[in-house]
Amino acid sequence: MDLTIEGLTVEASTKTLVRDVGLAAHDGEVVGLVGPNGSGKSTILKCTYRALRPTAGRILLGDADLRGMTMKQSALRLAALSQQSSVEFGFTVDEVVATGRLPHTGLLGRDAADARQVIAGALHTAGAEHLSGRSFLELSGGERQRVLIARALAQQPQVLILDEPTNHLDVKHQIDVLRRVRELGITVVTALHDLNLAAMFCDRIYVLDEGAIVASGTPRQVVTPPLVRAVFGVAAHVVEHPETGAPQLLYSPDTAYDDTACDDAFPGAVPTVEETTPA
Ligand SMILES: Nc1ncnc2c1ncn2[C@@H]1O[C@H](COP(=O)(O)OP(=O)(O)OP(=O)(O)O)[C@@H](O)[C@H]1O
């Protein structure tokens, strides 16, 4: 299912948090949202899962405008892992993941799917099956994150919104979770701080700066030294991943480093392209 964001603007009191944002994630695509702290990534994602009401613009799931859908209708199509996801009570891991089934069942309804199988599959995809039966509150930060990802997957969404899914995860689980989510074949929009992970796992990347999209395109088009310097203020080399060909950044410890030298030093570096406009 396609997710389309058109002309999204969010204002809070006197401040414009995001302005005129356009973003399209096509059916089955994994789309990354990157940008510095405070650039508006979470704000955009919150609008997609209806934790925030935009001031202007619209969000479409397929052809349907979110504003015309009930919460249940949108939750049957779209699931989210937010940065603030938390569980206050002493639920077991399985109970937490089972709450992902609520849009399908309602509070007292019956689940048409085999819920136990769905929950087991979600725990597996999130790399959390060994945590089944444990109390959620006794888990480590990374273990909790994997259970919360499983809860979103148990919703069996066609569109998955992930706000920093790799938070708290060790490197193996960062790669595992993104790879397995990608293998689901559903539409994913994910905010990521790690540009190398974004380049490795995303089909396309949108770059946000101060509430506006400043570039978008494939990882090769977007992950370039000039862009990383302009948006993040960091000098970097780009090399091709020897196995996948994905651009990977090697950061310079000196942010004043001359990045024109980077390209000379790395002949395989990805060429710079003009900023592209959002689809
Ligand atoms: N309710 C609000 N009122 C005023 N300002 C807000 C509100 N919510 C968010 N902001 C501000 O909007 C900006 C964008 O915040 P947002 O959380 O979307 O950024 P982000 O790109 O997700 O950041 P990070 O990478 O740090 O998670 C920030 O400057 C934040 O302080």
From TrEMBL:
GO MF: ATP binding
Highest taxon above the source species: Bacteria
Keyword vocabulary terms for this entry: ATP-binding, Nucleotide-binding
Keyword ATP-binding part of the UniProt annotation: yes
Residues of the ABC transporter domain: 3-235
InterPro entries: AAA+_ATPase, ABC_transporter-like_ATP-bd, ABC_transporter-like_CS, P-loop_NTPase
Record organism: Tomitella cavernea
PANTHER family in alphabetical order: ABC TRANSPORTER ATP-BINDING PROTEIN, HEMIN IMPORT ATP-BINDING PROTEIN HMUV
Name of protein: ABC transporter ATP-binding protein
